[in-house]
Amino acid sequence: MATLVLLAAHFEVAAVTVDHGLRPEAADEAAFVGRFCADRGIAHTVLRWDGASAEGNLMDAARRARLRLIGDWARENEIAHVALGHTANDQAETFLMRLAREAGLEGLSGMRPRFEAEGVTWHRPFLAQTRESLRDHLRAEGITWIDDPSNANDRFERVKARQALGALAPLGVDAQAIAGVTANLSAANAALHRLLMAEVACHVSEASGDLLIDAAGFAAMDPELQRRLIVAALRWVSGAEYAPRAAKVQSLLSEIVLPGDRTLHGCRITSGNDAIRITREAQAAADLRVAVEAGAALWDRWEVTGPAVDVAEVAALGEAGLRQCPDWRDTGLPRASLAASPAIWRGETLVAAPIAGFGAGWRARISRDAFATWLIRR
């Protein structure tokens, strides 16, 4: 509510509320926001998510659902920027949660004040303000709000962190103090990120969706930069939102200088004398099939376009498809890379495999930013 009130005083805004379907009161709470917006001439939309069917970490699933739903809403309404109401208290709670997971510098740097996801730029304009200071502003304006009872349910990790923060207050460890720590760590993290970008510019290239890392350049890097590069490369190639587990990354790094093939995080890592090649693991995408509609489809990390065809779908080329591409060696790409590339199928019949040079009129391109650009926008 404070985010809405403060931004509406300076900008033309639209508001969106996500009803997670987890509490019967949520619909009334969304209607409360709708009435507030209607009184002030602010457009308001309610989006709904079936949280009752979520599996695993409910809080994380809800967060990802919010980003996806709000991102879709923003793009449909030609809104390029979305503000989130996280405060210094949220930052401090996040810090404690990540501290408990033995996070490194990146994790302990806290939530980013700005990031890009779902085709939208997201902002957290009040990370330096405490929750109570925003409530004070609402009280001064005579504006009421609703407290989510989930924020008092100590089965959630964030609520436990909030309680721990209260216990630490007598030591002077409060939201403002932790905000200062995360700011210092964030500055150090940004400096390392700039060093990583310089290494990427010198030693990393793209080849039909693969990443090639110069072996000698990689060997000369500081171990922390090696770790960051490999984690970023695995995420970019796989499209995964999260990094692989630290122990698995460390195990990979201990072996990566040795020739051979390895798999991790839905990727195949091939170490040679001259380069380390990271490509999508064909098996990781083997079950992914997407229908072609009006000559276009988004499959895995690829945007595929071509002539309109009847009853066709995009799936991995695989070994079965390679056997139908007699000239695949002319591409100069490894067999494993082509096996993980997109192909257009009609049943068991291969219609086209753009990366393998089979079938006229079809194209495939990576649907996300180039690796270096993606790193900048992280």
Strand order of the largest sheet: 6-7-10-9-8
What is the distance, rounded to the nearest whole angstrom, between the alpha carbons of the first and last residues? 27 Å
Number of continuous helical runs: 14
Q: Mean pLDDT, as a whole number?
A: 93
**How many beta-strand segments?**
17
| Helix content bin | 40-55%
Q: Given the C-alpha coordinates, what overall shape results?
A: globular
The rounded Rg comes to 24 Å
The secondary-structure class comes to alpha+beta
Indicate the low-confidence ranges by residue numbers: none
- Biggest pleated sheet: 5 strands, antiparallel
Strand composition percent: 15-25%
EC number: 6.3.4.19
InterPro entries: Rossmann-like_a/b/a_fold, TilS/TtcA_N, tRNA_Ile_lys_synt, tRNA_Ile_lys_synt_N
Subcellular location: Cytoplasm
Family: Belongs to the tRNA(Ile)-lysidine synthase family.
Could you explain the architecture of this structure?
With 378 residues, the protein is of the alpha+beta class. The chain has 14 helices and 17 strands. The strands form 5 sheets. The chain has a 5-stranded antiparallel β-sheet with strand order 6-7-10-9-8. A hairpin with a 2-residue loop joins strand 12 and strand 13. Helix 4 crosses helix 7 (157-168) and helix 4 crosses helix 8 (175-203). The longest helix is centred in the middle third of the chain and has 29 residues, at 175-203. It is globular, with a radius of gyration of 24 Å.
